[in-house]
Design goal:
The structure is a homodimer.
Chain A: H1 5-16, H2 22-33, H3 41-53, E1 57-59, E2 74-76, H4 78-89, H5 100-106, H6 113-144, H7 151-184
Antiparallel strand pairs in A: 1-2
Helix pairs in contact in A: 1-4, 2-3, 6-7
Chain A binds a DNA duplex through helix 2 and helix 3.
Chain lengths: 185, 185
DNA sequence: ACACACATGTAATTGGTTACATGATTTC
DNA sequence: GAAATCATGTAACCAATTACATGTGTGT
């Protein structure tokens, strides 16, 4: 069983919203699952080619062969949907989750409280920005897409993100206070 | 500036606890930062060789050349410490954080509530196990290593993990209830 | 005219896992 | 004497980023 997640990110996006080009797929990824997933063109275009060769997706509009830079729309096939469904049922990979911020914080005594403080500040800022985005998305989602069958699941991932970010922001306040305490003590 | 994080994970571990072999470094990584970082032998051994060639670490005990499978202890050099410190001050990389669980949940309407429910259940189980481990670590840490200069930072990363896991576990209860609602509606 | 968004793709490189190969030491 | 743990390393492969190269369409 193929388990390259890029494959399934693309299939999943095309299952929700067909007739998209590689360019559009990337944008859709950013706008929908961007807070926990990313795809680069270097992954997307070769993967689209491969998926088409495997019959999991098809070109859904005729392409003018003469024009090289023209838009190529893809849609998912029944075979592609089947593959996506099979993958969805497989237990998620409990991969080693690498967090560079935490790694720096863990070793921070080698650099001093000033450095630690600055990293935590940046971390909090990033999380505040992300939280604002997710809350906006939540509002827009409720207004626009509550009729889609995927809607409840989209909202669940959003509420997960909101919860994690709020926890992280509160922790940052506590952590900054703790590190400031080290500067004096 | 080199930014391969494996480099700094190793330097950081050796800064805290010198005279470790590749084998031991891996174990130390698992036991200290394992809940947010991982390293495989395939990364560790070649990296150790490279770091030694660059003078960032040194063999800290004589190695019997005749014996091939003998333990090689490394320690960090002043140059290595400097490199580690420089890296600690660089803003953490805000890399695209990929979460396969959330990706599966996001697309779950293509597979149905049963599949979603099972994934969430597994997610919660995993988080419960992790939380138990972290709470244990917290207790042990307080008893054993509160005198180390890195201790406050270690506790901060732990309390971050505990907070995130508790939030995730509470969310899972909510999410499972929501998905069960979909099965009936 | 210029900038910016649209659009597709490849090549080089990096970073990492996994499987393989080997052997010593300890514990039951 | 078998199994587990200690111990080091390489090779094959996979996934992904980044930089590069090219060109069109739209708006100011």
């Amino acid at each position: 069983m193929e388990r390259n997640p890029t494959t399934y990110a693309i299939l999943g996006i095309l299952a929700i919203h067909p007739n998209q080009s590689g360019y559009e797929i990337r944008k859709t990824v950013q706008q929908s699952v961007g807070f926990f997933w990313g795809e680069s063109y270097g992954q997307i275009y070769p993967t689209l080619k491969r998926l088409a060769a495997e019959g999991l997706i098809v070109l859904s509009a005729p392409v003018d062969v003469k024009e090289k830079t023209r838009r190529k729309e893809y849609s998912i096939t029944p075979a592609g949907k089947k593959r996506l469904q099979a993958w969805l049922a497989v237990p998620f990979r409990d991969d080693p989750p690498r967090d560079e911020f935490l790694l720096k914080l863990f070793f921070a005594s080698d650099a001093g409280p000033g450095v630690a403080l600055e990293q935590i500040r940046r971390f909090q800022e990033k999380n505040r920005r992300m939280l604002a985005m997710l809350l906006e998305l939540q509002k827009l989602g409720l207004a626009r897409s509550s009729h889609y069958p995927g809607f409840p699941y989209w909202m669940l991932t959003l509420s997960y993100g909101v919860g994690q970010l709020k926890t992280a922001i509160a922790w940052s306040d506590m952590a900054m206070a703790a590190v400031k305490g080290l500067e004096w003590g």
